Amino acid sequence: MSGYLASLAPAGAPTAAPGFEKIQRRWDTRIERWCAKILPGEYFVTAHDEAITTVLGSCISACMRDPHAGVGGMNHFMLHEDTSQGRSEWMDPVAGLATRYGAYAMEQLVNDLMKLGGKRDRLEVKLFGGGRILASLTDVGRRNIDFAHAWLAAEGLRAVAEDVGDVFPRSIVYFPATGKVRVRHLRSLAGSRIGDREREYLRSLPVQQQTTGEVELF
Fold it and tell me: 60 with 150: CB under 8 angstroms?
């Protein structure tokens, strides 16, 4: 049966936008679309009718699309842990790495959508993630949610829908062509594995911040 279902898939995935050729994509028989899977620190944009999926713990995914231009994408990021004390300091753009990294993650997505013909003032935004699944004195998920809300407000954007917070991880599938998102709340056992992966991601952020390519921050 699996061979038969595989034979129903198109000969090849739609052409990826420049710079996204290495993102893993496969034909998903359940949704009958090519599906790009992104990991922490990654993002993906497309002008095709394909899906984007990821699994979120404390991390946030912003799903954005320009319905008029027919382009959309999704990121997966977490604020870097720094030594800032209190919301008023870490939300200050000059406070340090946390805010700069979060803004970079959001601007990457916006800038590449604009390269595909999207317009910033037409963007439809949806937010997901930010669960409290990491055993930490600070609620990393809440910090990520607060940052995402503050960034959108500063950019004159708003989330038309969101599923954030609480204590569980989420599996999401985003369909940029329609703007629909499928969300599945996962059990705590999955959260333990996701938490381990996100800790590894947090440890890698200082290096990523120093070595990433050109993106203009606003």
Answer: no
